């Protein structure tokens, strides 16, 4: 599918490329200032956070190491259950290190609460969360997320790392899909 057709599958653009870049620039500066010269490790959650990670880390005034985790959440359909299995663990030992979890989206927050608890059990110096998007349901679990790009409505969104059946991850914007895509 070419880019033009991919764009035509969107019903509405929620967040433009410029808005994403501007917000990630602000967050990058804020994270950088927060650690005030102390090293921190970025931990991305595959696969959705790939693009957030790429643009966030390039917006830092200096360099920060990164690592990745892949998890699968057992759930019925599109809702996650909070029961999580690690598909790919970190390559790095995080004992006594500052960790920033980098996520694309928090929906129920169950997956991320599990990841956070799992990382905290490894005795890091600290764990913070940075997510590009947050949905209203995330409020149901008291998940303390220090850096949030955008609060969005409770619609299914694609683009900028987020997929529908592995498609649309490479869109530069975040949007909702037109009904004809689902049918
Ligand atoms: P939680 O546990 O917070 O799960 O409910 C978050 C995960 O659910 C997926 N998710 C989405 N994926 N568009 C997507 O492409 C969406 O609107 C959406 N909402 C939730 C995603 O995998 C995320 O990591
Ligand atoms: Mg994800």
TrEMBL record:
Recall the GO molecular function terms of this protein's record: guanine phosphoribosyltransferase activity; hypoxanthine phosphoribosyltransferase activity; magnesium ion binding; nucleotide binding
Q: Where in the cell is it found?
A: Cytoplasm
Give me the reactions it catalyses.
IMP + diphosphate = hypoxanthine + 5-phospho-alpha-D-ribose 1-diphosphate; GMP + diphosphate = guanine + 5-phospho-alpha-D-ribose 1-diphosphate
Phosphoribosyltransferase domain boundaries: 19-164
- What family classification does the UniProt entry report for this protein? Belongs to the purine/pyrimidine phosphoribosyltransferase family.
- PANTHER family, per this entry? HYPOXANTHINE PHOSPHORIBOSYLTRANSFERASE (PTHR43340:SF1), HYPOXANTHINE-GUANINE PHOSPHORIBOSYLTRANSFERASE (PTHR43340)
What this protein is called in its record is Hypoxanthine phosphoribosyltransferase
Q: Which organism is it from?
A: Nostocoides jenkinsii Ben 74
